[in-house]
Amino acid sequence: MARRTPSAPELHRRAVATYVAAGGEESVQRVITAVQSLTKKLDQWYVRQLADLDMTAGEWAVVTSLAKAGEPLTPSQLADLTNVAPSSMTHRLDKLAGRGLIERTPDDTNRTRVFVSLTEEGWQLFSLAIRGSDVVESDVLQDLSDRERGELARLLEVVIDRLDDIDA
Amino acid sequence: MARRTPSAPELHRRAVATYVAAGGEESVQRVITAVQSLTKKLDQWYVRQLADLDMTAGEWAVVTSLAKAGEPLTPSQLADLTNVAPSSMTHRLDKLAGRGLIERTPDDTNRTRVFVSLTEEGWQLFSLAIRGSDVVESDVLQDLSDRERGELARLLEVVIDRLDDIDA
DNA sequence: TGCTAATATTTCGACATCGAATAGTTCGTA
DNA sequence: TACGAACTATTCGATGTCGAAATATTAGCA
């Protein structure tokens, strides 16, 4: 190996420095870069953990979207929510239905539409996986006090409140 | 359409509630879920912006990794940094090299290895894109004061400092 | 009613990604 | 030196994803 892979904090510092040098604003880049470093690590862990359940991240995204919605969703809505082309969703749903995790039911009021919902087995898999990932996520935040976690959540939620206004 | 797509804040609230109901801890889920909502939106914007430059997110990841490293990297290192299989990197590099954005040079001290570096054109594209994305990112943080941005960055950096210890 | 535009899902061909296998090189050590 | 284990990049076949086209249905309106 050429050189040991740099640590996450070191990569973060370099990234911020590089973006600032290229014309980015420091207060912005510190936050955005940190969010992305964190997500990247989380994604790696999720992929590994989901492999144990024989699932891809994309399939998991479908399951969580249905769980969060609390009601049936159409393939188009699922494609939107999971950032994927509608045509890709068809195949994903075929696969998930084949495993018995979701089911498709026709919408009687609009016959172009199909409703997708979690089966009992799908729900079981969902809560199993959540309890597993909560362990890792708690570890990630272990160095933050309760007050700090609250403050971190609050600041992020301020940002989120703006999100929809921007891409209009 | 069935029902209007819910707003980002609304989706966030539902997500936290669902995860907590499934056995997750609230202080954890508020933070983790918020980070992921934010990343998802950012990714959508990046994909759109990169499309203008005729690039995919994966190709952009290669360019930024090289820019941040500040020195040539091997295909394996790039695969690690961008969360992709080494075999996929071969094709990506072929494409980027075809466009003149990167170049491969053999390592004379170890003939199994190849060094990849940004060309002048690659650097130009990098700083062009950074200045573009910084605009959107600033918009995202517009509701936060300087002090709040600093605090947000600090808290995230505390989390990042722990990251490497966890997946050991 | 009848016609056009819009919506929703699926099919299709092209391309990106994956894991396994391949080929070549270096390192450790007997 | 000689041999085997470890490493590096690539090729290969299978699968997932994409955008465009096809199919079917609904909505708007003259």
Automatic annotation (TrEMBL), chains A, B:
Domain annotation HTH marR-type: ranges: 28-161
Family annotation (InterPro entries): ArsR-like_HTH, HTH_MarR-typ, MarR/SlyA-like, WH-like_DNA-bd_sf, WH_DNA-bd_sf
Superkingdom to which the source organism belongs: Bacteria
SUPFAM superfamilies: Winged helix' DNA-binding domain (SSF46785)
PANTHER family, per database record: TRANSCRIPTIONAL REGULATOR, MARR FAMILY (PTHR33164), TRANSCRIPTIONAL REGULATORY PROTEIN (PTHR33164:SF104)
The protein, known as: MarR family transcriptional regulator
Organism: Agromyces soli
